C-alpha cells in the first residue's frame, strides 16, 4: 500500500484534532471520512479538515470500502466495540490510550485485529517524544549502567467532560495518566511488572466520581522498582496542561527527562488571565506517531506500540485500583 | 555567654562547630571524640578542651549545653547523661535509633526540666521555611499531596562507614529520608500508613528507596531517597506540595543564584547565603535557652519522625504496607 485513506472515529478526545491536522499534512495518507455520534461535532470537524464523508453512525464509516484505516478517539469505554467492528471491516486501527477499560475488552480488540490481520496500535505518543527516544537509546547503550529504579511523573489539569465520568472513562487520573509512564518503563526495561502497590483518591476535586490522584509503587520481574505520580494535581494557574518527567537511576549513573525545558516562557495575558505560560517548541511527537502508524501499514510491519502494549499498561492501572481498594500489593499474572 | 560542649567531631560535628562563631551567645569550650586528633582539630579554633571520653566532658560543671553529633545509636545515652547532669541538649537527628530509646530520652527530659531539641535542620532551611509559610497562608488551598526527594551519592565519610551499617544507622530511611518525614509531618499532620520499596547495593545496605505515605488527613506523599546516585552527583533536595487551589515547589538544583564558568569550561553553581540552616538552628536553640522559651521542634515531633521512618523501614523489609504507630 502506498497511500492510506483514513477515517476518524470520534472527536471526543481532543487529540483527535491534532491527529486530523497531522493526517491532512501527510503525503502518504489522506483524511477521507469522519464519524462522530454528535452530528454537530462531526460537521464542525468535517468543515475544519475539509472532509466530505461525514457520518453519525460509526458502522457507516466502517462500511466504506475505500477506507484503509481508522483512528479511534472516542471515550475509553467505547474503544472496544469500535475497534472490534473496525477490525472485522478490515481497517487498520490507531486507538487512543488507555486501550480499553477492562482486560476482557482489550483482549477482544487484540484478538479481532489478529484474526482480521490488521494493525492495532495503541497511541502511546511518549514513545515518539524525541527526548525520550534518545533517553532510551542511552539507557540501552549502557550510559547509566544497569537500571535500578525509575520514577515518573505525569501530572495534569483536571480534564473536562467524559474523562471524569466513570462509565465512559473507566477510571480517573490513575488510568488516564499512569499508562504513558508504565508503557515507557516497559519499553525502556524490556521487562514486565510483577507487583503493584497503589494509593488513589479524589483529593483535589471532591465532587468528581473518579479518582483525581494516586501514587503507584511497582516492582518489575528483574527487581527494578518504579514509582508513578499520575495525578490531576496541576492548578489552572500552572504554566501548561501538566508536566511529564522521568528519572532512571542506574548502577553507573542517573538520567532525567523533562517536558518543561524545551519551552519558551511567556509572561503575557492569555485568555484574559495574567500568568506564566510555557509554549513548547520540541519535536512534534503526535506527528511522529501518526506517521509511524501510516508507515507500518504501508510496510506491513508491526507498530511500535501494539495492542498488547496497551493491554499491559491497562493491567497495571487496574491492579493499582485493586491495590488502592484493598490496601495491599497486587501481583500480576505472569 | 553559654558554654557548649560538642560530642562527636565527625562530619556533622564539624558542620556544627563551624557554625558557633556566627551564633552570638554561645561558645564551644569542650569537644569530645574517641579520636583525640579529630577532637583536637575541632577544638583548636575555639581553644576548647579535648576529651576522648564523652562522659568526662559531661562531668564538667561549667557546661550549659551539650551538642550531640555522635553516631545515631549513641544519641540516647549521651542525651540522657547530659540531661541528668543538668545540661541543655541539642541532639542531631534522628532523636535515637529505636523508639524505646527515644521515649526514654523524652521521659528523662521531662523529669530533668532541661531544654531539649532534635536538630531537624530542614525546618531552618530558608527555602523549606518559605514553602511552609506559603502553605500555611492558604495560597494553595488545602495541601493534599506532596513529593519530597533527597538524592545523593553514597556518603562515604562516616566513621568506620557506620551509615552503611543499617543496624547502626537504620539505613537511608532513618538517617536521610527522616528529614523529609519530619518536614511532611510538620506540614501535613500525623501519618497513617506507609509502603516502601528499595534497591540494595550489591550484598549490602539499601541505597535507594521510595515510600508512599497516607496521612490521617487523607493526604498522600511520595518520598524518594537515594545514596545510589553516581559519584560526583551534586546532592539534590526537592519538595513539592499540591493543594486544592495550587502547587508550590522548591528544588536545590534550580536555586543556584551564582554561576561561575572558568576558562576550561569548569562550571560552579552556588546558592550563597550569609547564614546556613545549621547557624539558624543552633542560634534558635541558644536564643531559646537565653529567653527560657521552648524550641520550635518539640521532642515529641522528633519521635513521630522516627516512628514514621522506622515504619517505612519495616515496610521495606517486609514488603507490606505498615500502619504508623501513634508516637506517644
Shape of chain B: globular
Order of helices and strands of chain A: EHEHEHEHEHEHEHHEEEEEEEHHE
Q: Helicity range of the residues of chain B?
A: 25-40%
Q: Would you give the CATH topology of the largest domain in chain A? A: Dihydrodipicolinate Reductase, domain 2
Beta strand count of chain A: 15
Total of DSSP H or I helical runs spanning 4+ residues of chain A? 10
Radius of gyration of chain A: 20 Å
Overall number of structural domains of chain B: 2
| Helix and strand run of chain B | EHEHEHEHEHEHEHHEEEEEEEHHE
Oligomer: heterodimer
- Low-confidence stretches of chain A are none
CATH architecture of the largest domain in chain B, please? 2-Layer Sandwich
Q: Please report the distance between the alpha carbons of the first and last residues of chain B.
A: 35 Å
**Proportion of residues in β-strands of chain B:** 25-35%
The overall number of domains of chain A is 2
CATH class placement of the largest domain in chain B: Alpha Beta
Largest interface: A-B, 35 and 32 residues
CATH topology of the largest domain in chain B: Dihydrodipicolinate Reductase, domain 2
Question: Can you say what the CATH homologous superfamily of the largest domain in chain B is?
Answer: Dihydrodipicolinate Reductase, domain 2
User: Class of the largest domain in chain A, according to the CATH hierarchy?
Assistant: Alpha Beta
Q: What's the total helix number of chain B?
A: 10
